[in-house]
Amino acid sequence: MGTERGGFSVLLLIVLCCCFGGKCELQDSKPSAQTEVPTGVELFPNELDEAQAFPDEEKAHLPVFTMDYARIQVPFEFTLWVLLASFAKIGFHIYHKITIWIPESCLLISVGLVVGAIMHAVKEEPPAVLNSDVFFLFMLPLIVLDNGYFMPTRPFFENIGTVLWYAVVGTLWNSIGIGMSLFAICQFEVFGVQDINLQENLLFASIISTVDPVAALNVFEDIGVNEQTYIVIFGEGLFNDAVTVVLYNMFTYLAALPVVEPTDVFVGTARFFLVALGGVLFGLLFGFVAAFTTRFTHNVRQIEPLFVFMYSYLAYLVAECFAISSVMALLTCAITMKYYVEENVSQRSCTTIRHVVKMLATISETLIFFFLGVVTITTEHEWNWAYILFTLLFAFLWRGIGILVLTQIINPFRTISLNFKDQFGLAYGGLRGAICFALVFTLPDNINRKNLFVTASVAVIIFTVFIQGISIRPIVEYMNIRKTNKDVNNINVEVHTRMMEHVLSGIEDLCGQWSHYYWKDKFKKFNDHVLRRILIRDNRAESSIVALYKKLELQVAIGLLDGPMGDLSAAPSIVSLHDERKEATRPKKKFLAADVRKMQDILSKNMYKIRQKTMNYTNKYNLPDDSRTREILIRRHASIRHSLRAESFRELPSQNIPKSQRYYSLQPGRDLETAFALRRRSHGGSGDVEHLSNLTPRSSSRSHVPMRRLNTIKETGNTATSSQPHSPPPGVDALDRGPGSLEGSSPQGRKVLVPAPKRRLLDQVDSGEEDPADSEPVQPPHLPPPGGWAPENQDPRANETLLRDPSQWSRASGRP
Amino acid sequence: MGSRASTLLRDEEIEEIKKETGFSHSQITRLYSRFTSLDKGENGTLSREDFQRIPELAINPLGDRIINAFFPEGEDQVNFRGFMRTLAHFRPIEDNEKSKNAAVSEPLNSRTNKLMFAFRLYDLDRDDKISRDELLQVLRMMVGVNISDDQLGSIADRTIQEADTNGDNSISFNEFIKVLEKVDVEQKMSIRFLH
User: Fold this and answer.
1) Is B143 on the interface with A (CB under 8 A)?
2) Can you tell me the distance from the alpha carbon of A513 to that of A502, in angstroms, rounded to the nearest whole number?
3) Residue ranges of chain A whose pLDDT lies below 50
4) Which InterPro entries match (chain A) (predicted)?
5) What value does the CA radius of gyration of chain B take, rounded to a whole number of Å?
6) What integer pLDDT is reported at residue A330 of this predicted model?
7) Shortest Cα distance from B52 to chain A (angstroms)?
């Protein structure tokens, strides 16, 4: 740790020196170049070297060492900046605790401040790269693409009313409220800001009301906020970017006008809606085109990710061209596109897309914050106590009141109302972010008090990010702790209540409580019959059953090794069957209160939180974390495979597992270790194919059964490796009926788990074949004639979706 | 979808279900439409596969057990009555029901029945006792990989110790009820079914 930090700081210093060294070099060479060139031009019109003008008296000789900094200056400095910001990020994560208490934006701004201070000390100017065009054409789309691509669609659409309500009406409320109040303040002569007219105030207010609640979300994740609230906060942050940009453009235009008439207000409102809807339409159009294109890209897998980016960017630019809301266009495009594209493209492209999107967005945002820090020190500020303090006050006030009022209005329409804790989170978590700064920095220069605005925004941002950002966690924890009373001596309560919570959330999911069936079903039917047929590539299964199953195993194996689960194979010895027998003789342990507390601690940290309390997709700086889903699915899968082996049933001492219990993913007396031991065996190198064919007839047929269930078996024709015996194993009796249905159910369950929940019902719309198969689990090879197994629309999805990381689905559904 | 559902469910049936479970007419209709949308085979019953198709249930740590709770012992299909009967456990206890104590046979959503539902999730072999092994099973399912088995074993031991009053090293149903007496089970095991 120490050497890491040491090395890191040395690196940082070196980078900084290069940065400044380069600049100084440039400054030195500039004047010389300028004086040289004129004479050079007169005498030697052909030679236009700038820094190295040849003196005309000497004989020209080949220079051994030249340096042409000016040529590379811009890209070089850009790279250095990005690198510097990235080092800063590495630095934060070296010590984990920091990021818990301090939001990342804080840290980035701090580093920016430090660099700015250094630059100020050596009288440097920050590179003047952040202008309007660069921001709007390059940085904003990246941030928005990230937001749109990782948006969890199902919870979002279930709450879309509330989200839009807060985003649109809330932002309008804030902007107009703050604008009006500030204008009222401006009327007082004593503050000295009379020259700011109403339009400019409104413009400034609209910039200030953009919130970026991501930092707050991380806090809420730990203390447990309702899923619905989560998505409202997340969605609001997303959409008010769109609203703000629209308002910004509108008000900039208005600010340029000398006089504002009432008709302009109406026109403005009409324009607002036109712009928003137009953006959505554009986005949908480009999204569908992108999806359609990816249908044909199976031969050019390497450039598949490109389509995602190019189409989104196109959507953005075209919308900009027509002055429609480009942010909305991009968001809609990303959401639409993701659903279909992720089915068409290969697994690797999928991963690439996600990583690159995250990467670009992080760069963009990091740079903006960093720049903020630097600019804070190096720009000339105009400080006006009154204006700035009132801005802070009004920003806070109007947001708070706004949230309260809006919630009161919308709560009756919601299935889960937002309680006080949620509202507090919404209001207090409204930190201002990168977009706010960028918008104000790129104001046109004809706004006469631009410097004041910049100063005020910087002040608001720094205040909210630092003070609110750091304090939100303690406050929320305090609020939360007050409500729960921990009964020190009762572990039972903890375990059983958590169990009940899981059950409850399971039953809720089962009942499909929160979906509005009618529209959802209509959309599903439309999607299935029309959209999917057009947009998704119809891929006949070409690979054999075994290869496919192997891929699935590989998939899960990679997942196993990749994450923290990689250690599972080295798991400590699990209580085996034998220990159970010794139980009666085990002396009763005495548990001290300290032990109990420790246990409670362990439990609360390690028990899976129920669905409603964890939101892993909202951490902006990381990819969604799906380790929990993987653990659960792997456990199930492992024990399914485990139960397929003939040996497993013979191994068990005469334990007659009642039929009902065979369906459990972890069966009584079975333990994880044997489950994984068997898996480990099967993953010995490329042993899958051999392994499968070496199995005894009984077990091989059984292990093939899940593949049937996986619907990959539909291509009965081209199974080259149909070494599967087709006669039912002789000793199949009622005992085997259990695993038959088990394999039938679980792997199938696994298969259809993988597509996003929206598609879930689609999987089975066209398949009646499942049922004849269901009714005859005992004799798999004698299943209905090939006609029933004809390849059908489901296959490609089955094949492709098998290859999908379960995380993708879980992310799509918003599950951790 | 809505109209199709109500024509398939006869009014007498709705009445019977209403009496047995206490759901309202509209709730029953709504849940019936959910039932039919889950029922891919359209044969009026749900199998385990139908349940396992629900993605959220699959990554619920206790998913398998919840599903199994719907199926009566030894059966593989559940019809709508059975479905509703199980869901009835999760109906909130209304105030006016609390008063009629022993008037009718205990409603399905009484506190005791809710606790019985939870108890059965642990007690797989239906011997009316949660053994250490059964408890460990559920604990293991609910917990991530970072807890070693010694720790988990200790936790299970402690849990049994706390609850066990008659010294048989397992938790009986009465002990279970006793240990959860302070917990607001009515609220924890209730879903607000939309009207």
Assistant:
1) yes
2) 15
3) 1-2, 19-52, 482-485, 514-515, 539-551, 565-586, 612-619, 643, 646-665, 667, 669-816
4) Cation/H_exchanger_CPA1 (IPR018422), Cation/H_exchanger_TM (IPR006153), NaH_exchanger (IPR004709), NHE_CaM-bd (IPR032103)
5) 19
6) 92
7) 5
Q: Which helix (H) or strand (E) holds B30?
A: helix B25-38
The distance of B25 to chain A (nearest Cα, Å) reads 16
Question: Among positive and negative, which fits the CA dihedral A289, A290, A291, A293?
Answer: positive
For the range A653-662, what are the long-range contacts, defined as Cβ-Cβ under 8 Å and sequence gap of 24 or more?
A653/A577, A657/A738, A658/B125, A659/A737, A659/A738, A659/B74, A660/B68, A660/B71, A660/B73, A660/B74, A660/B124, A661/B124, A661/B125, A662/A738, A662/A739, A662/A742
**Is the Cβ–Cβ distance between A243 and A167 less than 8 Å?**
yes
Q: What share of chain B is helix, strand, coil (3-state, %, to 5)?
A: 55, 5, 35
Q: Are B151 and A600 in contact (CB under 8 A)?
A: no
What amino acid occupies position A10? Answer: V
Nearest to A809 by CA among A763, A770, A759, A744: A759
Regarding pTM above 0.80, the answer is no
Inter-chain CB proximity A661 and B124 less than 8 Å: yes
Inter-chain CB proximity A774 and B47 less than 8 Å: yes
The predicted complex's ipTM stands at 0.90
- pLDDT (tens digit per residue) in A394-416: 888 999 999 999 988 888 777 66
Q: Which residue of B41, B118, B141 is in closest CB contact with A500?
A: B118
Q: CA B153, CA B169: separation in Å to the nearest integer?
A: 13
Give CA B41 to chain center in angstroms. 24
Nearest neighbour of A744 by CB, restricted to B43, B49, B162: B49
Task: Show the tokens assigned to A718.
Answer: 């081209």
Distance CA B37, CA A763 (A): 12
Which amino acid appears at position A801 of this protein? T
Best of B60, B85, B91, B192 to substitute, by most chain A Cβ atoms within 10 angstroms, is B60
Torsional sign, CA A478, A484, A490, A491? negative
Q: Does B88 touch chain A (CB under 8 A)?
A: no
Residue-averaged pLDDT of chain B: 80
Q: What pLDDT score does A762 carry?
A: 35
**What's the pLDDT at A748?**
36
Q: pLDDT at position A313, please?
A: 94
A489 contacts chain B (CB < 8 A): yes
The reply to whether residue A608 touches residue B61, judged by beta carbons under 8 angstroms, is yes
Residues 9-38 in A contacting B (C-alpha not used; CB under 8 Å): none
Three-point CA angle A154, A156, A160, nearest 5°: 125
pLDDT of residue A10: 57
CB spacing of A668 vs B140 below 8 angstroms:
no
Phi (first) and psi of residue A325, to 5 degrees = -65, 100
- Helix A171-186 to helix A198-208 angle (10° resolution) is 140
**Residue corresponding to tokens 């109406």:** A266
Looking at residue A812, its pLDDT comes to 39
Q: Which of residues 145-184 of A touch B (CB under 8 A)?
A: none
Distances (CA, A) of A416 to A226, A242, A408, A646, A756: 9, 26, 13, 49, 24
Read off the amino acid at residue B67: I
Tens digit of each residue's pLDDT (9 = 90 or more) over B37-73:
888 777 888 888 888 877 777 778 888 888 888 888 8
